[in-house]
Amino acid sequence: MCGIVGYVGDGICKQFILDGLARLEYRGYDSAGIVCIDPKHNHFVFQKEAGGVSLVKKLGETARFDGHIGMGHTRWATHGIVDQKNAHPHFNCDNTVAVVHNGVIENYEALRKELLEKNHHFYSATDTEVIAHIASDLYDSTGSLDGMCTALVKKLHGAYALVLMLEKEPTNLVALRHRSPLVLAQHDSSVYVASDLSAFSDKASSACFMPDDSFAILSKNSVKLFDFEGKPLIPMFEPIDKKYIEIDKGGFEHYMLKEIYEQKRAITRTIYFCRLIGSKNGQYTDSLVDSFKHSEVNDEYSDQIWRHLGLSKDQVKRLKNVVLLAAGTSWHAARIAQFFFEMVAKIPCQVSLASEFRYMPFFPKDDTAYIFISQSGETADTLEALRLVNSFELPTVAITNVASSTMVREAGGFLPMQAGPEISVASTKAFSTQMATLYWLAHRIALERNTISWNDMHEAEEDLFVAAEILETVIENYKIKIINELAPKYAQYERFIFLGRHINYPFALEASLKLKEISYIFSQCYPAGELKHGPIALIDDKTPVVLFSILDDVLYWKIIANAQEVKARKGHLIIFAFEGQHELIDLADTLFIIPRVKPLLAPMAMTGLMQFFVYHITRVLDRPIDRPRNLAKSVTVE
Ligand code: M6R
Question: What CATH class has 3-239?
C-alpha cells in the first residue's frame, strides 16, 4: 500500500507534497515522511513522523525546510514495526540517495545479505531500504540514471512503485513502476508524480498513467519515459477527471455518515449510467445521466454495452459460467450477486476471494466471463487475479468505482459504478452500488439471452430505485432510536454473532465485517443453518445475535426456527425483519422493520440501516471512524 507524491519544478514543493500526502492517507497512515533538496546547498533535508491521527499536519509543523524538488510518503506498514525509523524516505549509507516505495520487495532478505557483505549498513527493518543502497551502487557503476534504472529493475522481485532522488542529480526525480500504480502530470514548468491522481488533481489538468514496467526521469518541464530495457516511450497525457478533487464532509461528522446518506443517489446514478453507457452517441455526461429515459434504450444500445464490457453479443449468448473475483466488502457484494446471476440470468456463477484464487488450480474456460469487483480498482490481490486470467486471453471485466484505476486499464472491458469518491475506509456506498451494478448486469445478460423480456428489464431497474429509496427512508425511521437508545446500549457489549441465510448470509458477513472493522468489537458470522453445528455453544445473554430475515416463503420459516434456537438458550436477538413477518417480529429483543422489496434486493434495502446502526455504536465508543487502526482504504500489497 502506501502513498507516494513527488514534485520538481520552479515552484516550492513542501506544501504541495503535504497536501498530496493528506489526500493519499487513505493508502496508509502509520507514518509519513518528506525529503527535499535544499536549494542552497544541494543536500537532502528530511523529516519523518510516526503514528497519530493528524500525522501529516504534524509533519507540516516539524519539517521546517522547502525546495524545488522533493517527495513524500505515507506508510501502511508491511515490513518493520510502525516507528520513525521505518518511516519513508529511506536512504543509502551516506544519505545521498533517497527512496519512497509502495509495494513489497520479496527478495529483500537476500539483497540485504549481499549488501551487508559489501559493508553497507542499515538503519531500518524495512524491505525498502535495500533499494536506496542498490541504486547508489548502480548509479556509481553505470554513471547515469537510466543505466541505474535498467540495472535496478533486474535486481528487484515483487511489486513496486518507487520514486528516487539523488544528491548527485539535484534536478531530477526518478520514478519506477512494476505492478503498483504511479501517475505523472505536468503543469507549466512543474512535474508531478503520485500513487493516485487525487494527490494533484487540483494542480494539473492532464495526467499520464505510467505503463507497467516503465521508469521515468522527471525534471522541470520534462518527462522522459522508458521501458525496463531503457527504450524510450511516448508518455500519453489525458485530461484529469475533476471529480477526484478533494471532497469535504459536507457538514457530516464523518465521511462514513455522509457516504451512508449518499447511497440512494449513488445507486440511482449507477443505474442511469448502466443504461446510458452504450446509448446512441455513447457519450456519458452528468446531465444525460440525470435526464435519461427508457425510450432511449434500443438495439444499437444493446450492442454497445457489450463492446464496453469487452464482450461480443455472441459471447454473452454462449456464456456457460460467470466467475466473480474480489476482496473484502467487494467479495460480499460478489457473493450476493451470485444469486443474481444464477436466479435471474440462469448462469452458473462461482465466487472466489482473489487472494485464494491465485494459488488454486486454474481451469481456463473461454465460455466464462471473469468479472473483477473492486471499489478502488487497485487492490493487489484482485489485480493479480486479473493478470492471471488475462494471461490466458480470457474475457475479463472490471467493475470498479474509479474509472482511471489500474484494473480498468488492464481488464478487457469495464462497467464503472457511480458511487463518487468514497473516502471513509469502511466501504458503504461502494457496496450498495456494486450490488446495484451486478443486479443490473445479471438482468441485462438475461435479456440478451432471452431469459427475460424488456419489460422485466425495466421492472428490475424500477425495483432498484425502490430498494434505494427504502435503504434511505428506513434509516430515518430508526434514526432517533438508534442514536439515543440502541447505540449506547449495544456499544457496551464485547462480542456479537451475525446470522443470515441464502442471499442474506453474505449480507450478514458484510454487517459483521463492518462492525469489527470500525468499532473493534469482536464479531463472528455464520449461515443461520450452521448454528446448531457448533456455534450455538457461544449463545448467552452477553452476546447479542443479529439476525437478518429473508423474503422467501420456505427460508423464512427456517429463519424463525433459528431465532427460536437462540431464544431457547436465553440469547439476545436483534432482528432485521420485513413488514408483515409477525412470527419473527415477536421473537425480537430489538427490532428493525424494513418495507418489502423484491426478494433479491433484500440486502440492499437493509444496507443503510445496518451501516447506520454500526456507525453509531462506533461513535459511542469514540473510535476514529473514517480511519480505523491498522487499515488503509486501498490495499495495494498482497
Ligand atoms: O477497493 P476494493 O473494493 O478492491 O477493496 C477491497 C477491500 O479491501 C475492502 O472492501 C475492505 O474490506 C473495506 N475496508 C471494507 O469496508
Answer: alpha beta
